[in-house]
Structures are given as structure tokens and as C-alpha cells.
Amino acid sequence: MPTPPLPVSPDPPGAVTRPLLTQSWLDLTFLHWAADPADVAGLLPPGTVPDTLDGVTYVGLVAFRMHRVGWLGLPGVPWLGTFPETNVRLYSVDAHGRRGVVFLSLDASRLIPVVVGRLGFRMPYVWSRMDIRHDGDTVTYTASRRWPGPRGAGGRITVRRGGRIEEPTGLEHFLTARWGLHGAFFGRSVYLPNAHPRWPLHRAELVECEDDLITAAGLPGPAGEPVSVLYSPGVPARFGRPARPAGITTP
User: Residue 42 gets which letter from DSSP?
Assistant: First the structure.
């Protein structure tokens, strides 16, 4: 029988002592829309189902700056490993109760990390022209796809950062405190755990959102305004080695 989902926790369930990847996620904006689990279930990898809160799952559009990606405990790369990124993601849980995210697309502005992500990890990375600009409390993210397409897909997101959230709601923890990634690597469905400090979250006002990345990922266009708009200055993160669906960590 499947194990019930693990409790939603703002802190990681365990440390990553032997990181496969290290990186920092900076200047993040989280936009989320509610979705019917039946509408997204077919987009998840085998062995997972939509993760829900009160019967609802969510589609996320997350824009940020990747900073100094490093491999196997080596120091992060300053230029090649630093770039804007925007992902479209869903929320998943497997038979072992592990909650995670599923990326439908990851737009990034550095070609080499895109190629490595696509070929080495079978992740849906896309090479795009991207920019992040700050004007006081306002942050603007832009993206336009180059390869493999659809060429020109992208958009523009502008948010105004508000005050720090001292006590995030259950929904805000559910959408941001995700301690793993479900995906398919080298033909196998696996779980990639991660760990990072508790998110410093801020309220945010959505000033502008022109986006077609969600529809390019195979989802219906969002209906109405997002149900959650959050900003975070960021956290350092560590990814552990992939675990197969049975929970056995790869050698």
C-alpha cells in the first residue's frame, strides 16, 4: 500500500552530506494558480500522482537567478554557473510519501548548462534570452526562447516586493518547502532530494504578467490572477544523489 504523504515541513527532512549539485537560488518570484489534479496527472512521471492540499493542486511559474552552480562538492562556477532561469512546475507525491516538484520546462540563459541538463539529466531545459532588472522594490523578469522552442515563447513578469512574512500559511509552505524532485533520469523514474535553509518569504504584488511558458508546457492558460504571489531574496541549496522509486540511492 502507498505510504501517506510526509508532513509538509518548512525545514528539510534530512541533510545532504554528499552533494551532487550545489547552487544558490536568488531573487525569486513564485506565482501559483490552482489546478484540478485530474488535469495535470497525465504530465507527471510514472510512480507519482498530483500532490494536493484540500483536494487542490497547483501550477507554479517561478522566476529567479541561479548563482554559482557547482558539481560534486566543487566550488560553484562564477559566470557559467550564474544565470536567470524560469521554470514551470507541478507538485507530486510518490508511493513512499515523498513530496516533490516536477518540472515541465526550465528556461535558462546559458547554453552549456541547458545542454548538460537536457543530455545528462534528461531535464526539459530550454535556451532563452533572459534578464532580471531591479528598480527599488520592483523586480522585472523577461524571457524569450531560442532553442529548442517554441521559438519566441516567454514573457515578462513584474512584481513589487512587500514585507517579510513572519508566519507563512500552510499553503505558502506547501508551495515552497519542497524537498525533492521527481523525474526520469537515464530511463528510470527517480527522486532527487535537496536541502536548504528555511525560505525567507515576502509578500509581493503582481504588477505585470505576460506569459506563454505555461501553455508552451502543455497546460491550459491560467484562468484569472494567481492565488499566491511570493518573493524571496533566496537560499543556498544542495542536491543529493538520485534515489530510485524503491528508495535505494544510486551508487
Answer: G
Sign of the Cα torsion 167, 101, 211, 214 reads negative
Half-sphere exposure of 243 (CA within 13 A, CB side): 21
pLDDT in tens, 231-245: 999 999 999 988 755
CB 112 within 8 A of CB 77: no
**Residues ≥6 apart with Cβ < 8 Å to 181:** 100, 101, 102, 103, 191, 192, 194, 239
Instruction: Return the closest-CA partner of residue 23 out of 220, 239, 171.
Output: 239
Where do we find the cell 530550454?
126
Residue 59 cell numbers, joined: 501550477
pTM summary value: 0.94
142 touches 126 (CB < 8 A)? no
Q: Classify 225 as helix, strand or coil.
A: coil
Q: 166-201: buried (b, 16+ CB within 10 Å) or exposed (e) per residue?
A: eebeebbbbbbbbbbbbbebeeebbbbbbbbeebeb
CB–CB of 165/172 below 8 Å? yes
